[in-house]
Amino acid sequence: MSIVIKNLTHVYSPKTPFERIALDDVTFTINDGDYFGIIGHTGSGKSTLISHLNGLIKLTKGSINVNGIDLGKKYDYKKLRSEVGMVFQYPEYQLFDETVESDVSFGPRNMGLSEDEIKDRAAWAIKLVGLNYDKIKNRSPFELSGGQMRRVALAGVLAMRPKVLVLDEPTAGLDPRGKKEILDLTLKIKEQGPTIIMISHNMDEIAAYCNRIAVLGAGKLEGVFSPSELFGQSEIIERLGLALPTPALIAKKLRDRGVSVTASDMDGLVQAVLSAKGGNYA
Amino acid sequence: MRDVSMGQYYPTKSPVHKMDARAKLVFVILYIVMLFLVPSLDNYLGGGGRLGEYMVKSGLSFGVVTLFLLVAIIFSKVPLMKVLKSVKAVVYLVIITAVIMLLFYSGKANHVYATWGIITISLEGIVSAIVMAVRLFLLVMGPALLSLTTTPVELTDGIESLLSPLKLIKIPVHDIAIIMSIALRLIPTMIEETDKITNAQKARLAEFDDGNVFKKAKAMIPVLVPLLTSSFRRADELAYAMDSRCYGGAKNRTRMRVMRLSYRDAIALVVIAAVFFAVLTFVYDYFGVATFISEWAYTLL
Ligand SMILES: Nc1ncnc2c1ncn2[C@@H]1O[C@H](COP(=O)(O)OP(=O)(O)OP(=O)(O)O)[C@@H](O)[C@H]1O
Ligand SMILES: [Mg+2]
Questions:
Q1: What is the pLDDT of residues A107-161, one digit of tens each?
Q2: pLDDT at B5 over 50
Q3: Can you give the pLDDT at residue B153?
Q4: The pTM is what?
Q5: Which residues approach ligand 1 with their CB closer than 6 A?
Q6: Which one of A57, A112, A149, B281 is at 20 to 30 Å from A133 when CA atoms are compared?
Q7: Alpha-carbon distance B193 to nearest alpha carbon in chain A (angstroms)
Q8: Parallel, antiparallel, or unpaired for β A61-66 and A164-168?
Q9: A67, A163 contact by CB (below 8 A)
Q10: B144 contacts B68 by C-beta, under 8 angstroms
Q11: Rounded mean pLDDT, A239-249
Q12: Are A274 and A281 in contact (CB under 8 A)?
């Protein structure tokens, strides 16, 4: 079970003056169980890429295989979309129903599940995102706080029990604490099974949470790396004009001053600094 | 999507694109007036004219206007197919109307080829059908070229400027123009927003083209509710943003894009005046040009 993308190319408004190559010959694989990060500049094609994964953008060139579903052939898009849950940027703006519970039930209901199952799943998802089910289920989603609304929207996707959860900048517009809460929530969700794909502009988040990271630059794939590969060497990151995560930045500044350390996350940095000092302080 | 946001605008660099929007608007109005200088066949014959003369006069007039339009299109660097495509919908309408006109010509006809019941095919019918078709076709092509070479924002600015004399009679031209510009500005945003929300709900397996009308209407709710709330939010934000920058209406405001007439507009004015005069010459037979040509045509026949 994995997502295999081969030679994916996508052109918006082809053969017009507005033509725009958003993805150019992109090939990589996302394995089952990955917490997969996608980074790249604004307009580098990240959203275009993930919108292919559940068929919202029709495959025009190349091939995609999601857990055995070949998107180049005729496929059951209901099945695909319940396997690949998609949480877009600012998902709280998609809430529409009268109560939190019925909004969260929208996906499962469209899947054609039984009423009992729908209720079970809604309750499960609302609890999973850390909200008090009994208190919140009958409230209007429009009278919640921004952070709560985002959780409800997330629950609406989780209630479909996707095997792959795609998050497009899940922390955009939240304060540091809200960010951390949502990210820790994704780890909790991951324990329930799904592969997670996350787009983010925040390198600290990417370095701390992802095990593999794809770097897009102007529609082209620059490569897929582990956090230590990517942030340890810092050339690719600098060439693409992206920022280093804080621990890697500190490591780089130390290197510049002659202390030989490499690190991509905080624990790694602490270890590296300690061993560079030549002692074991634990 | 992006194409919608610019109206029909076809972005290239051309002398026509660079012309002042106000000048283009005025020229399009002149162009339309020109098309109506040629009388209809009914009226012409009713006024005691001859069919042959009419054919020569209308042929020459529309010929020179078509030539003018073609030259304008060439200078605008918009592919001819693009212009034709933008009037595609109207073309079918024109053709159908012309056929009906041809078959059911109701005026006095002296050159009848055939009759079946109420259907009559006559030279008069054919001529008026052709004149009608050509006139309507030219009528939509001119404004189409205008919208292909002028952005909606330029057009609004141009209209505002042309209507500014109405301020004298206390019509809030500037406010109307601002409302138009904001609406124009927000259309692409709304389309984008609709797209986003539709995709988000599709990702939750929403169906939009299933079932009967009521089902379809109900299926729109998950899109319409977020769209409305976000429109209100956006309107509020824009109003705050305008207020916090002390937007206060028309008084003493300077413009970012100052419209200036240039030599291009002057050249265009000369050309269009010449075409206008040519059409007048043909239709009203100044200097006997039309008579001369029609007599020459008779000798050829
Ligand atoms: N619907 C569309 N029509 C035409 N062009 C589009 C459309 N959507 C995106 N593009 C263009 O395709 C390119 C890639 O866009 P995309 O949204 O995938 O970028 P992104 O990496 O997600 O950027 P961001 O970080 O800003 O979200 C951009 O240049 C964008 O202008
Ligand atoms: Mg994006």
A1: 999 888 888 999 999 999 999 888 888 888 889 999 888 888 999 999 999 999 9
A2: no
A3: 82
A4: 0.71
A5: A 12-13, 20, 22, 40, 42-48; B 1-2
A6: A112
A7: 10
A8: unpaired
A9: yes
A10: no
A11: 80
A12: yes
Angle at A49 between CA A169 and CA A156, to 5 degrees: 50
Q: Report pLDDT digits (tens) over A270-282.
A: 888 888 777 555 5
B166 Cβ contact list (under 8 Å, min separation 6)? B173
Distance B219 CA to ligand 2 centre (A): 26
State mean pLDDT over B135-148.
Answer: 90
Q: Which atom of ligand 1 is nearest to the CA of A169?
A: 27
Element (H, E) at B128: helix B123-149
| pLDDT confidence tier of residue A255, bands split at 50, 70 and 90 | confident
Q: Which atom of ligand 1 is nearest to the CA of A48?
A: 18
Instruction: List residues of chain A with CB under 8 Å from any CB of chain B.
Output: 12-13, 16-18, 51, 54, 56, 78, 81-82, 85-86, 88, 91, 93-97, 106-107, 110-111, 142, 156-157, 160
CB-nearest to B200 from A17, A88, A111 is A88
Confidence at residue A126, expressed as pLDDT on a 0 to 100 scale? 92
Tens digit of pLDDT for each residue in B150-202? 988 888 889 888 888 888 888 888 888 888 888 877 887 888 889 899 999 99
Average of per-residue pLDDT across A211-225: 89
pLDDT higher than 50, residue B2: no
Q: Is the dihedral of CA A86, A90, A93, A99 positive or negative?
A: positive
Place of tokens 């939190």: A100
Please give the Cα distance from A180 to A157 (Å, whole number): 20
Across the strands, what pairs with A28? A5
Query: Per this entry, what is the length of chain A?
Result: 282
Å between B197 CA and nearest CA of chain A: 6
Q: Which residue of A has its CA nearest to B207?
A: A110
| Residues contacting A104, CB < 8 A, separation 6+ | A122, A125, A126, A152, A155, A156, A159
**CB within 8 Å: A96 and B222:** yes
**What burial letters (b/e) apply to B227-244, b meaning 16+ CB within 10 Å?**
beebeeeeeeeeeeeeee
pLDDT over 60 at A61, yes or no: yes
Q: Evaluate whether B148 touches B16 at the Cβ level (below 8 Å).
A: no
Tell me the average pLDDT across B83-97: 84
Chain B positions touching A17 (Cβ under 8 A) are 10-12
- Helices B51-76 and B289-300: crossing angle, nearest 10°? 110
Residue A278's identity, in one-letter code, is G
Comparing alpha-carbon positions, the chain B residue that sits nearest to A95 is B226
